[in-house]
Amino acid sequence: MCNCGTDECGNKRRQGLVPGILLLVMAVCVSVNLWAQKKVKEKKKTVVVTTTTTEGKHYARGKIPVYLGHSTIESGAMGKRNFDSLMKQGLTSVDSFGNVYKVMSFMFTYAEKNLYEDSAGKLQFITDYLAEACDGDTVDANISRVLYDRTKVGDTIYVDQVILQRTDGAGAHGKSMRLDITSR
Questions:
Q1: pLDDT higher at 136 or 60
Q2: Which of 95, 114, 119, 129 has the fewest CB atoms within 10 Å of its CB?
């Protein structure tokens, strides 16, 4: 203790405690944050069951593959003629156990690349989008009248939000597909 009778020495002791307390609080905050991140990583490690059984029949879990027409094409590049003929057949879906699913509805998006001229006379490619919610396994009749005449190299077709129905009446979700028109 100080014999000077002033509070000067006590203030010096308190000033030395403040940085130590701040360091302790910061260390606690960092360790809590790291502990919380570790808990999140542990929760992500879940085991996924790949099948479900109904009345002795196996069905795949998760999103079911959707195919263009009566083919095995799920996504990728294809020619215009091939796309036109397969799209007219509609969408089909079969899981890994061979179970056939009925396509109830899907979202169809057509991304058409066109060459436009801006106000300065500079040419540029711009993509126009046409989106349509379709019931059943084929595109709407109004869309199909225009679609097959408009598709060309460079266009992209997206099929997503596919709703399927199993033979036992249970619903399922289909995988999205992206189709790029790359040749005639």
A1: 136
A2: 119
Average pLDDT over residues 58-85: 87
β-strand pairing of 51-54 with 57-60? antiparallel
| Number of neighbours of residue 132 by Cβ within 10 angstroms | 14
3-state secondary structure of 47: coil
- The answer to whether 107 and 160 have CB atoms below 8 angstroms apart is yes
Query: Two tokens at 159?
Result: 């099929």
pLDDT, tens digit, for every residue of 133-167?
999 999 988 888 888 888 889 999 999 999 999 88
Cβ atoms 133, 165 nearer than 8 A: no
Burial class (CB in 10 A: 0-12, 13-18, 19+), 1: exposed
**Which residue, 62, 61, 43, 63, is CA-closest to 52?**
61
- Does the reported pTM lie above 0.85? no
* In the chain, domain spans: 64-183
* Neighbouring C-beta atoms of residue 36, cutoff 10 Å: 9
Alpha carbons 126 and 158: distance in angstroms, whole number:
17
